[in-house]
Amino acid sequence: MEFGNIERLQVGTILQSRREMKTLGYHTPIQAGIWGASKTGACSIVLSEGYEDDIDEIDYIKYTGHGGRDPRSPKQIADQEFTVGNKGLQISCDYNLPVRVWRGFQTKYGPEKGYRYDGIYYVKEYERVIGVSGFYICRFHLVSEDSYEKIIDKIDSTIKDDAGTPERVPTKGSRIKRDYSLPDIIKRKYSSKCQVCGVQLKSPSGDIAIGAHIKGLGKPHEGPDKLSNMLCLCPNHHAQFDAFSFYIEPKNLEIKNLEGFEGKKIKIKHKIDMKYFAYHKEIFNEKNSNTQN
Amino acid sequence: MEFGNIERLQVGTILQSRREMKTLGYHTPIQAGIWGASKTGACSIVLSEGYEDDIDEIDYIKYTGHGGRDPRSPKQIADQEFTVGNKGLQISCDYNLPVRVWRGFQTKYGPEKGYRYDGIYYVKEYERVIGVSGFYICRFHLVSEDSYEKIIDKIDSTIKDDAGTPERVPTKGSRIKRDYSLPDIIKRKYSSKCQVCGVQLKSPSGDIAIGAHIKGLGKPHEGPDKLSNMLCLCPNHHAQFDAFSFYIEPKNLEIKNLEGFEGKKIKIKHKIDMKYFAYHKEIFNEKNSNTQN
């Protein structure tokens, strides 16, 4: 199982069948959409029939894992679990492994015939939530390593005619680049002390803290890269904040749902825009109401 | 400043001069070895004269930052700081950004003439230590995204004759792949409780803990991927362990140099090989004796 770019395989390449993809070693399972396992992670997925919960925006894909479907229809009839390929995609997220994405002729932005290789994506988040069917699904948020415009450039001529290019104005070069000096500014303001617990972690190469975005950068959250959207957190509370274990009440800055911190407020030494806390709280509610542990 | 692969630029490409590299936009500074800044990270470095502390093993490079040198000789005459390009490489490490590496004709494994593009590397670690000159240097450990054998395959014909290929037996396909199920095994053994502090971090997508390697995987540490080389740690103590803020005494498992944990021992529920703690302690001593904060 090879991860990442395969030398001979160019973005935009179309193969006629799943069997051909198997023969060339690009995606070995003939049926399964996910090529992956719990030891290795998942290296490749194929978008084909599509689950009822899927979303495709070319550079961003909301993808449902496998399992729990009626063999005779695309209907969900049982819960999905983080096993086999779903576990593989979870590993690919946790360890930031590259995933090759193929779009089939069955999909909105796929080719007229066969399966097209659309490049490397990364799994940015996953969750297990109740899908529209009423059953639990494993959901993955995949983001392309290329910008929307770059992908379109490479595959444009092969997108099927009836779908056309999606309604979005190409904005070449307008992609916001991240400013890596902002985390340093935040860390200096708080002397690298966590705004939740106050811990200051020393190391021989400098204090350890994370300049964390409240509303996540880029897809799927599209939060802005500015100080008013950032916090200074220790790695533990950063991991829990990003996993929506707790939230900050935008009305009074109280820490909510975090053991040992009931009724406490975060320390503030810079201007934060409360709408980002409100957004984070909204996702918190979605993930925590929907989730089985 | 473009990061990562550039479409037209193949690994093994040789350009005749730094000016040509600038004109084509591959490495814009004419003199500086590092193309980077504190806001963006560093996207490209050129290995040329070489600092007295540098090591080049093709897939692994121990690279000294810039600054503090006598303008008329390669001698170090002052301390280096994490500013400009050095700050850029530090950012590239913290955020795992791809760095393009060029080897010049002046280097052991460079081409006969000009500068050869040798592909994408990642900065795995950095430190500020006293170099052989007696002055502080910023040191970076870069590891290629490709295996040693793959790089050699791509550039072999252009390595200068007098250096030849380095003395190492190519071991195609023998590269150890990581087993991503091991962290899960470790986490289950400890119910995701940190072996240092005992904290158990909840989240809606499962408990948060890290199956951490004691002797780091791959270059530069070359630790093995097995349970006897692993710990279950919370993100905070993982970050501090990896940054050599503290160590575990191999003789008695006591936690050393960590505020609040003096005289305490880590909890053990699986077999750990003490030689990995001894290795980690050795690096701890090197980093902490040498380091200025």
Notes on the structure:
The structure is a homodimer of 293-residue chains. With 293 residues, chain A is of the alpha+beta class. Chain A has 2 domains: 14-158, PUA domain-like (Roll), CATH 2.30.280; 182-290, no CATH class. Chain A has helices spanning 18-23, 84-94, 148-155, 182-189, 235-242, 274-290, and strands at 14-15, 34-37, 41-47, 55-56, 60-64, 99-104, 115-130, 136-144, 210-213, 230-233, 247-248, 255-256. In chain A, the strands form 3 sheets. In chain A, strands 1, 2, 3, 4, 5, 6, 7 and 8 form an 8-stranded mixed sheet that branches. A two-stranded antiparallel ribbon of chain A has the order 9-10. In chain A, a hairpin with a 6-residue loop joins strand 11 (247-248) and strand 12 (255-256). The first copy, chain A, is elongated, with a radius of gyration of 21 Å. Chain A starts with 13 loop residues before the first strand and ends with a helix. Residues 169-176 of chain A have low confidence and may be disordered.
